[in-house]
Specification:
The protein is of the alpha/beta class and about 325 residues long. It has helices at about 25-35, 80-105, 135-145, 150-160, 200-215, 225-245, 260-270, 280-310, and strands spanning about 5-10, 15-20, 45, 50-55, 70-75, 125, 165-170, 180, 185-190. It has 8 helices and 9 strands.
Length: about 325
């Protein structure tokens, strides 16, 4: 039986491995564990539209369709990463248990000690990917998202709790921008550009975060999901508008579109024509321009939301990442 060489890509590295074609799949997964620290039971091998896991370890490389020159994408978490996620999950279960016990106990008299009440509707932990370049920049972005006043406002309003806010690596899940596991147990976000030459725009990442927070309530991208997702984005815009105006109290939000870029805002609020023939024609021209800008902006937002929806790994499954 002839030898075959396969090329395994994992987190920016490529491993060229040569085996006899009759080699058991378990030998390959054990070798990959030595090279990547990903245990065989957590390995997923993607190639030519196929997928192999350690559950198929009684078969040979040839049996599972691996040929000479096959390019394989390895997906999986290391033991350390799994340990970190388990710690975050354990902490979330502990906190949830405390909240449930308090709810069952009902109201009671508590003597004030002057200490502030702990707010459960927050991100309990953040986690960048330490093996990627400049992890401190990813941590700074996660920290900014997790303490964003507008995001914390909607989390408190809708009683959202997230155990772990983590980074999603472009090379591991190139088809995803975000992922929500178990309705907020873990939310992962794509922070970096595809070329790893910097971080994605903050407001773009925050829109994906609003999308993934919506999956705390709704799994599929149905009308219920779209309505709540739009509501969250409106509430974020309303909160920031109130802060800019110096308002300390948020009233009911009208639902009118709050422009996301200064160019669109200027076009909507300051459109004018110099030397117009009459006030009526001036108003008509201004209204027409406002309508065109609004239409174009809404179309742009719809396209962006469709892209986020297409690159979301959470719809219809809240259990685990793919």
């Amino acid at each position: 039986m002839s030898d075959i060489t396969i090329h395994v890509a994992f987190r920016g590295n490529t491993y060229d491995l040569t085996f006899p074609s009759s080699t058991p799949l378990s030998t390959l997964t054990s070798t990959l564990e030595e090279l990547t620290a990903v245990p065989p039971n957590l390995q997923k091998l993607l190639y030519r539209g196929k997928k192999a896991t350690s559950q198929l370890d009684d078969v040979s490389l040839l049996d599972v369709g691996l040929r000479d020159g096959t390019k394989v994408q390895l997906l999986g978490s290391t033991v350390d990463q799994v340990g970190d996620m388990h710690k975050a999950e354990s902490e979330k279960r502990r906190r949830d248990g405390i909240m449930e016990a308090r709810a069952r106990a009902g109201p009671s008299k508590i003597r004030s000690t002057g200490k502030a009440t702990v707010n459960p509707y927050v991100f309990h932990a953040t986690q960048p990917l330490p093996h990627l370049p400049s992890p401190h920049l990813a941590q700074a972005l996660l920290q900014k998202l997790s303490t964003d006043p507008a995001i914390l406002h909607i989390m408190s309003t809708h009683k959202f709790t997230v155990g772990l806010l983590a980074e999603l690596a472009p090379h591991e899940n190139p088809e995803l921008l975000g992922l929500n596991q178990n309705k907020g147990e873990i939310i992962k976000l794509r922070l970096r550009t595809d070329a790893y030459d910097g971080m994605r725009l903050y407001k773009d990442v925050r829109r994906v975060l609003c999308h993934e927070l919506t999956h705390n309530v709704w799994g599929d991208h149905d009308n219920n999901f779209k309505e709540l997702n739009s509501q969250l984005n409106r509430e974020v815009a309303a909160y920031e508008t109130s802060v800019q105006k110096g308002s300390h109290t948020l009233g009911s939000y009208s639902g009118a579109y709050d422009p996301s870029s200064s160019v669109e805002a200027d076009a909507l609020s300051h459109s004018h024509v110099l030397g117009g023939p009459s006030n009526a024609s001036l108003d008509d021209s201004r209204d027409a321009r406002r309508a065109r800008v609004l239409e174009a902006t809404l179309a742009r937002l719809a396209r962006e939301e469709k892209e986020i929806e297409d690159m979301c790994g959470s719809a219809g499954k809240q259990a685990s990442s793919s």
